[in-house]
Amino acid sequence: MSRFIIKDTPVVGLKKLTRQRLGDTRGFLSRLFCSDELSDAGWVKSIAQINHTYTKQQGTVRGLHFQHPPHAEMKLVSCLKGEIWDVAVDLRKNSPTFLQWHAEKLSADNQCALLIPEGFAHGFQTLSNDCELLYLHNMPYNAAHEDALNMLDPTLAVEWPLAITEVSERDRKHPVINSSFKGLTIP
Question: Distance between CA 89 and CA 148 in Å, rounded?
């Protein structure tokens, strides 16, 4: 029995996962990762890093972060507490969905996750207070290859569902896309 329902999104390669809970009067079990099941969805490398974030205020935006090749990373993003609007932007140079974004509501209740391929920028907005996320990465963080896009970039026109209440100074200063941005080449 599969523990995940895996669905394609309108952006090529980006997958929405819904975890299938097994429960009884004691509570439930929910599988967060299974290499056998997720290999069909594109996860073929090992987990290199796991991060846990906490964001306290509703309306906060983090992102849109990515890493340049050869350190481009695939992420599996799950919301363990609260609710978020999770956004992935396709930055792959030769993709038919280049510079398109897709978002999903992720929450502890809906048991959904986003499987974000290499070559995507990622960010989220908290839809409730006290949100906790778990990120699984197939590549370790590499500061020399880190980059980001501005969350309010008019070229992307991401539709954030709430007024933005909090943003780090660093995220606020990320650049918008200009004519020199040709995308990422992902092997």
Answer: 11
